[in-house]
Amino acid sequence: MMETKDLEKLISLGHYAQARKRAEELLTKSDSLRAKQLYAFSLSKSGQPEAAREFLERVAKDHPDDPETNGILGGIYKELFRNQQNSAFAVLARDTYDRSFVRTKNFYTGINAATMSTLAGQSRRGKELAQEVLDLLKDPDQDFWEAVTRAEALLLLKERSKSEEAYRKARHLAGSDWGKINSVYNQLWLLKHYLPVPREALTAFSPPVVVSFVGHMIDHPDRVNPRFPANIEGQIKQAITSALNTVNARIGYCSLANGGDILFAEALEELGGEVNLFLPFSQSDFLAASVSFAGEQWTERFLRLVNKYPVTYLTEEPHAGHADLFGLQTSILFGLSHLRSLATHAEPYLISVMSERDQQRKSGGTRDTIGLWPNQQRHININPDVYVPIAAITEEPVSNTTQVNRTDRPVLYFVSFDLSADDPTGEAVLNHLTNASLPPAVTWRKGSEMVAGFRQLLGAMEFTTHILTSASPIHPAPRVTLHVGPFPLHRITGIDYYPLLEEGGAEEPIAVLEQLSDIHHFTPSGSVYASGAFGALLALDDVRYKLSFIDTLREVDKRPIRPIDVFSVSLLHISKLVNH
Is the pLDDT of residue 505 over 60? Predict the structure, then answer.
């Protein structure tokens, strides 16, 4: 039987979806109060705070004096207030924290009670609680959380200069722990909407800027006109470092081709930044296509970086001439940098190394993909032309060869959902697949689960909207899972479109479908979960979609899997889509 201590460990590591799933299993065998608390907490963090609220309110009625239950319930109310800006939740959070503090005299519930009282319009009660909290602190000069609590209490008491000094000390204690820094910054960002917050405090806890990078490789030996010759490597790296310092960027997303990519990763590393690496296909193929032709030293630098920093693969399948993998990878890099920036309430930057002289456009190349960046005002380009003498440029011969992009393994956008046989809306959902303006390239059904793969993101999201708006009120809201990746059409049929891929039709498991199934296993009813790759694409359209990080899946039913980031997706153009 799964013990509560195991659930606590999963939660401490941020594995909320896995904790929720296992807490559900534990509650079928145990009536433990602790299991109920952990289930509600993980459910809220899994993107369903309303469902967590309903569940834990019932528990709290049976345990009105339990401080842990009230502390978690107060946090759920606070999260709902943060998301919806509904003052009713601020009042509920205040009352819940206040009751808990009266019984426990715990400084954590106390400072939350004080803050929520202030936000709910009861500043006098907020000041009373803040003073009580200050008297409870034992070591605010050494303990980070006590230091932050002191700073916030002084802020509520309108002791501005003392609060500023306390925040400076807390920032020193935080060091480079971005989790702590983000937590304080988000709290200050909330507070500044209701009372004056010192600019110095916001500046001190402002997380570093997030940046994406794309850029040219070192010139191939066959290249006639120099664009990025090896002898300007040092100047380009210096320019990248200057750009990083100019925008205070310390969190970066990039691939790892020779030239610009590796120089960017090394420059960020030397500044003490966080390096996030991405490869579009198998490492061996990537080395051959994008690294080793420039010389052994680039291969060695590549291997050092991939052995030191986490690498995310779009797919571990071979390249095999599928150029669409490069474009998809760049879109994912851009989207993930945007998602990461949401915590800082600031826009990310793009740094690029791109020749303005060379106007050739290659599918998946720098000039082709740079247009995917959504905010050109936050784009810094380093032009290598300024380091290459014009005299070195000669007339480029016209090439008779054309690049071939294979289409037998296209990138598809997958939608997985449960289709109940007795749901009267089921037939309409299936008919939509046949009559849709953007029909799927492939569909696959296993029992009640249906998978549809589309050639365009728009087709997948139109179908997702259709599923959610067609759900029958008689049945539970559907669970929908989204993922993107290459799909080997050539392994299944000789034609591109066909109505149904029967189970067992492929020679071996298809990676993108296995990953989709793994995420679907953790998707709760009434939710839309997306893989990190799919979520990153949606993040570039924050007018239509809101995303919340849920978990990094590392195992399914005790079976280890390659880590998959999971996001909860809200479709902002539809109200009341799901039943919480």
Answer: no
- Do residues 314 and 279 make contact, with C-beta atoms less than 8 angstroms apart? yes
Beta-carbon contacts of residue 500 (< 8 Å; ≥ 6 apart):
443, 444, 445
Q: Is the pTM of this model over 0.90?
A: no
Average pLDDT rounded to a whole number, residues 68-92: 88
Tokens coding 518 = 């793994």
- DSSP, collapsed to helix, strand or coil, labels residue 561 as strand
Burial class (CB in 10 A: 0-12, 13-18, 19+), 102: middle
Strands (DSSP E) contained in 208-257 are 209-215, 249-254
For all residues of the chain together, what is the average pLDDT? 85
Structure-token pair, residue 136: 């409870």
In angstroms, the CA 6 to CA 154 distance is 38
Q: What is the dihedral of CA 48, 54, 55, 59, to 10 degrees?
A: 140
The sign of the dihedral angle between the CA atoms of 382, 386, 388, 394 is positive
**Count of C-beta atoms within a 10 Å radius of residue 580:** 16
Asked if residue 239 has pLDDT above 90, the reply is: yes
- Spatial distance between the Cα atoms of 256 and 290, rounded to a whole number of angstroms: 8
Largest Cα separation within the chain, whole Å, is 83
> What is the CB-side half-sphere exposure of residue 171 using CA atoms within 13 A?
16
Instruction: Please tell me the distance from the alpha carbon of residue 381 to that of residue 550, in angstroms, as a whole number.
Output: 34
Backbone phi, psi, residue 212, to 5°: -100, 160
Cα-Cα-Cα-Cα dihedral of 217, 221, 225, 228, to 10°? 30
Domains of the chain: 4-204 (1.25.40.10), 209-386 (3.40.50.450), 411-571 (3.30.70.1230)
- Nearest of 421, 401, 530, 413 to residue 462 by alpha carbon: 413
User: pLDDT tens digits, residue range 519-574?
Assistant: 999 998 889 999 999 999 999 887 899 888 888 888 888 888 888 889 999 888 66
